Amino acid sequence: MPDIRLVRVDFRLMHGQVVTAWLKQVSADAILIVDDQLAADKFLAQVFLMAKPQGVKVAIRSVEKAVAAFQKGVFGNEKMLILFKSVESVKRAYDLGFPLEKLQLGGLGNGTDKVMISKELSLNEEEVEKLLDMQGKGVEITLQMTPRDAVITLDDAVKMVREHTKE
């Protein structure tokens, strides 16, 4: 069974911050990118694979194929960093049986319906509902951009979103 070191939602997927900071922080030797669009785009997937750090295995799977791979034990004993592009995709994976105990939210992108939680982190009400559902089922959820940044609990983030939407 794989050793899941970090499951992170970051709309940029495998970018410099993930490769230079988080990969080292959690001592992972494999990255699984879970994203339906990227898995379907062979050219872009190849670009991601070419950009992988030396000595690190990278796999790209759709949500359904990632869940099936974990259920079949495809990833062996890898020390894994798992990246999802959105809260929606990690929630779908979780609902399909993806083994999720802890979830870290990083870059979620900006939008007119999003509330800024910190300088670089934002959430909207739809994301909050999905995250609260997972938290209610035992998933520990935090927000953190880089290892140097303070950890924000989901409860604190939800308070900020809900206070802002009352205004």
From TrEMBL:
GO cellular component: a single term: cytoplasm
Domain of life (superkingdom): Bacteria
Principal localisation: cytoplasm
GO biological process, one term: phosphoenolpyruvate-dependent sugar phosphotransferase system
Example of a GO MF term: protein-N(PI)-phosphohistidine-sugar phosphotransferase activity
Localisation: Cytoplasm
InterPro entries registered for this protein in UniProt: PTS_IIB_sorbose-sp, PTS_IIB_sorbose-sp_sf
UniProt keyword annotations, A-Z: Cytoplasm, Kinase, Phosphotransferase system, Sugar transport, Transferase, Transport
Segments forming domain PTS EIIB type-4: 1-165
Entries under PROSITE patterns matching the protein: PTS_EIIB_TYPE_4
UniProt name for this protein: PTS sugar transporter subunit IIB
Organism: Anaerosacchariphilus hominis
Species lineage: Bacteria, Bacillati, Bacillota, Clostridia, Lachnospirales
